[in-house]
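2024-03-11 09:14:02 DEBUG pipeline.ingest accepted 1 chain
2024-03-11 09:14:02 DEBUG pipeline.ingest length=574
2024-03-11 09:14:03 DEBUG pipeline.predict start
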Amino acid sequence: MTQTGAFTFVLHSHLPYARKAGMWPHGEEWVHEAIAETYLPILRALDELTADGVEWRLTIGITPILAEQLNDPDIRANFEIYAAERASWAANDIDRFDAAGDMQMADLARHEHQWYARSLSDFRDVYKGDLLGAFRRMRESGNLDIATCAATHGFLPLLSRDSSIHAQLHTGAKTSARHFGAAPTAVWLPECAYRGAQPAEELGHTIRRPGIESFLAEEGLEVFFSETHTVEGGDALGSADGAPRGPSGQARGRLIPRPWDAPREIGTTFRPYWVGDAPGEVAVLARNPRTGQQVWSATFGYPGDHWYREFHKKDTTSGMHYWRVGGRELDMGGKPLYDPTKAQERVRDHAAHYVWLVEDVLGNYAASTGKFGVISAAYDTELFGHWWFEGVDWLKEVLRGLAGSPVVELSTASAIVEQHPPDKVLSLPETSWGNNGDFSTWKNPDTEWMWPLIHGAEARMERLVSENPDAQGPRRRLLNQIARELLLLQSSDWPFLVTTLQAKEYAIERFTSHLERFTGLADIAEPGIELHEGQITFLEEIEHLDNPFPDIDYRDWADRQGQVLPPGLMTPVA
């Protein structure tokens, strides 16, 4: 049979910098949970597919700040404590339920105990604590395309200095290459946030700030991903029920046309497109709505099936999950007990349905257009295993099914662009996955105060680079640490957590801590101030707390703000 189209899963893996920043309910345990519930199970599933001779393909983004944490010795050691602790808690539940004569609960506790015990043994014995090394080997085999991201998931369009956009992406790409052994060619823009070229005023001149794609091209990044509405325009996802949802379950918004938006050509999610300032260099793949809805929809999405494990209800003694969804109409007190065997039956049913769906959607596109279509099915990695416990098993079976499909080319994002290159250039709107498809999830009355502080730090960083064009010794260490603090300050996670109220006070504390560290170190770095022993000790303390990006270079923040334009060539929109 003739192949009608290509398909790739695109999984975006990201957690904010949480090393040495507290544990439960916010902090480093976020990383431990994701290792146990998502990253280890995914590695295990992919290894099982390989052992079965399945020619799977997958695109997975691992943000540089997440990679640095997964590689950190302290986080590795703390994870072993975390997994052993929970295996012990589940073992205690076995004794508790046995003593109460509740055999069904005791069996569920055994299931949890075995699951955590396997997580610990796999981490120690199979992967030797080196999850990044396992992903690297899969990349080297040709099965896995590992996408990069901005270093700390900074919200690029809201950064005021081009030096910051460059440094976020350059540090990120360099970090990914160091961990995974090759320069990345795919990139997930933080929060799917994009802006094209824009005018700005700089020292009495109108300048042209390049579009985000120009920065991507400079790093050799050939493809990025966007929400459906970015390419298709308008209310592209159809119904409110079908809106993609982030890890919090918050409905993702859509692009609402604004009266000052210029008319633009509309595209389709079934094709990649060259983008704006970088035709022939940078392409965009947009999320396919139908395959996305099948997972994300609150009404018919797979994770809400009655037989899947309930995420929100936990045992009050151990925190283990012993209940299933049962039905959306049920409150937490009415949730029935989990049945792992029945849940696995639903996994197989849903995987077979999704394989059919992909074949059907691509087949219909080919039949109606006569063209070879592509599908980019993008999800947060942590959906699988963490939020949707059975999700990794579902993912494995879908990959198995699509690898054997006679009509679908199972692929990766970079391979799609290379083998089925765009033949058209699109000018994309300013957009994100947030509410209304704009930037208001990250800049709003609750977070407005953050941005002048970020912008002031950006400008100060440029001045420090200008004053120290080639610092050496302790001063170079100092300037590099200042650059680290600026990257951490710029993380989009802090305003997001404030806006969504998930961890507002925690996010504010993290933001202000990095700002204080940046400011304290920058004060020491002022011209003419020689570092004395006490200041070096202070620097060492901050280096111990915040240690990502060991090869960071503060000179990446040199001023590069736009291009001066002749009067009237590019006028700001009123």
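2024-03-11 09:14:41 DEBUG pipeline.report The CA atoms of residues 415 and 538 lie 47 Å apart.
2024-03-11 09:14:41 DEBUG pipeline.predict end
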